Amino acid sequence: MTALLQMGIFGDTSSPFDEYIDKVTAEHLTTENWAMILDVCDKVNSDPRAPKNALLSIRKRLNHRDPHVVLLALSVLDSCWSNCGPAFRKEVSSASFINELQAKATHSTRLVAEKTRMMIQKWVENECKSDASLSLVASLYKNLVADGYSFSSNEPKKSSLTRDIQAEEEDALAKAIALSLQEADKAPKTSKLYQSLNTTYPSTNGTSNK
């Protein structure tokens, strides 16, 4: 089904990078394989035609049905943006791919949309400042800001009940520590009192000193 969907979007176009990008965004990966991703970046930098082909392969994975694959593809995209120079960034800033980014930033699952928006914000605050050819990325960011989109992760916050329970646990721990310190302070005093009694009432066992 995914293959048919991608054929519908991209036709029969294949890319020399399909195999590499498929591996670094494989469904079974639990997290990014940065060694493989950087290897992809090296391959992109080795051929002037590579940026266009690499982005085509990444775009296919951005349209995968599994959000986890899409998140991995975003990591590859971001790494290539940072490591593959102006040629790759200009491909990303093309009109056709900007539409892809906009769709991911606004009409995806929460995690995909948040990651896309934060990635765009990072680009605008760094590379886009010194490269006027990336104006479409900057414009996309401005539009997202104007539309009121968030550029941070909206992880669920702890409930007030959870905070109250945590506060009670911390208070109980503090009391236990204080009690332990009090008992520790008493122990040396008892020992000194015992020594004092022994001095006052010496034992009569054994031989006496002459």
From TrEMBL:
GO terms for cellular component: ESCRT-0 complex. InterPro entries: ENTH_VHS, STAM, UIM_dom, VHS_dom. Residues 24-152 form the VHS domain. GO terms for molecular function: phosphatidylinositol binding; ubiquitin binding. This is VHS domain protein. It comes from the Eukaryota. Gene3D superfamilies: 1.25.40.90. It comes from Teladorsagia circumcincta. CDD domains: VHS_STAM (cd03568). The lineage of its organism: Eukaryota, Metazoa, Ecdysozoa, Nematoda, Chromadorea. It holds the Pfam family VHS. SMART domains: VHS (SM00288). One of its GO terms (biological process) is protein transport to vacuole involved in ubiquitin-dependent protein catabolic process via the multivesicular body sorting pathway. Residues 185-210 are annotated as: Disordered. Residues 192-210 have a biased composition (Polar residues).
